[in-house]
């Protein structure tokens, strides 16, 4: 079943929770990182798990594959550390691990998904800017979330008692 | 599943270990630590002075940044599915003076009683001591630290406070001092509440603004008047209430040894602006759950000193989040809470690395 991990940049508040939890479960090396651009806008950078992933096409050792959820994963046993995946990645995602001497990147929390759990970043993002699930569900959720955001800004002066899901 | 999943490390509560842990403070650090510790099978009790868990994610940061349900549903899940016990409106203290956010406290518990009754303690009480610069007039009615200002607005939105206890900014003029995230949020909330005019005063320029140029420009688009290179000199009152503020223009010095350009007031450049409220977002200080000596070391900024295990100078008492780091970010508090909880767990189970 195809599942996507989507980061909505317009909803990100730059709090770094995604990076913090990702670092915690990956022994100090986060696969999602928040960058502060010169404008001051924070942008979290992580693997988009492309449908037509350039890294998969270019990898000379065939080390990059897609799993049953559509996650693009690097097999460390096959990786030769040539960094071609990094060269072609539109987002600069793959990282060279100097200890393991292979490229590593986000595997959409493969170990967690095997146990029926969602990627940690999406579970913990306070702003609900990271979505995980079937594409059609996510797309609907993003539109709903954006509508809520617009509405909330517009009716901020009105007490929310009795409105929507608030008690 | 709409809420944050603080117990994201496990699917369900494991077999109990028989150990109990008290967490003081239900903000991002305390909640992340609670999530980790219940996933290890410990009994977790969380004490907080506010009427519901969430800390500044609920009572400080505006809901257009962090949706209320995201925090509320997350805490409910921690309570219902993982058995974390919350003690709201309960302040853990030892000789503490008044701090911001004490409005809802109904019970006080001595810090020493907590230490006595639990196998381990984690302090995650944050930085609730917001200050107002000591300039003439800073004690007038209508002068607020930004934390208190945002706290009242969010408390009313969450249904814990009557709107008549919130400063009625509709149709009024508000000046916010500072250019960090808290200042930006205070200015935006003022605009959203219908303030007639909102000013933002900062002693450096937009390039140095800690919130970043994007946020400042966004505010200007929303009609906020950006007063860069200005500093408050005195607040002018009438019948005990704020009537105006006197600012002085500044110029920036050459970069000092730290690389920062210091603002220097320009003599004779003073000017006044008529305002009804002055909101100061110029910094917050750590608020550990004790004011007297408990054998826990603090540094000169009032932060709790911890070792590499996140343990304080007292065996079995750990600390995490802003009370250790100083004012930071939700994510840094979450991360610190997780690492501290992990260390606490190892210490509790006598795992030695």
Mean pLDDT of chain A: 90
CATH topology of the largest domain in chain B: FAD/NAD(P)-binding domain
Helix content of chain B: 25-40%
Major sheet of chain A: 2 strands, antiparallel
Regions with little confidence, pLDDT below 50 for 5+ residues of chain A? 160-167
**Global outline of chain A:** globular
Structural class by helix and strand composition of chain A: alpha+beta
Count of runs of 4 or more consecutive helical residues of chain A: 6
Beta content of chain B comes to 15-25%
- List the uncertain runs of chain B: none
The radius of gyration of chain B is 21 Å
State the total count of DSSP E strands of chain A: 8
Strand content of chain A: 15-25%
Under the CATH scheme, which architecture of the largest domain in chain B would be assigned? Answer: 3-Layer(bba) Sandwich
Q: Number of helix segments of chain B?
A: 9
Q: Overview of this structure, please?
A:
Chain A is of the alpha+beta class and 167 residues long. Chain A has two domains: 1-46 and 108-151, Alpha-Beta Plaits; 47-105, Alpha-Beta Plaits (2-Layer Sandwich). Helices cover 29% and strands 17% of the residues of chain A. In chain A, strands 1-8 form a two-stranded antiparallel sheet. A two-stranded antiparallel sheet of chain A has the order 2-3. Chain A has a two-stranded antiparallel sheet with strand order 4-5. The longest helix of chain A has 20 residues, at 135-154. The radius of gyration of chain A is 18 Å and the shape is globular. Chain A starts with a strand and ends in a 13-residue tail after the last helix. The model of chain A is unreliable at 160-167 (pLDDT under 50). By secondary structure, chain B is an alpha/beta fold. Chain B folds into two domains: 20-129 and 284-348, FAD/NAD(P)-binding domain (3-Layer(bba) Sandwich); 132-280, 3-Layer(bba) Sandwich (FAD/NAD(P)-binding domain). Chain B has helices at 28-39, 56-59, 68-80, 111-117, 146-157, 181-192, 213-221, 322-325, 330-348, and strands spanning 20-24, 43-47, 85-87, 90-93, 107-110, 120-123, 129-130, 143-145, 173-177, 197-202, 225-228, 230-238, 241-252, 263-265, 271-274, 277-280, 284-285, 317-319. In chain B, the strands form five sheets. A five-stranded parallel β-sheet of chain B has the order 3-2-1-6-18, covered by helices on one side. A five-stranded parallel β-sheet of chain B has the order 8-16-9-10-11. In chain B, helix 6 (181-192) links the parallel strand 9 (173-177) and strand 10. Chain B is elongated and about 70 Å long. The mean pLDDT of chain B is 94.
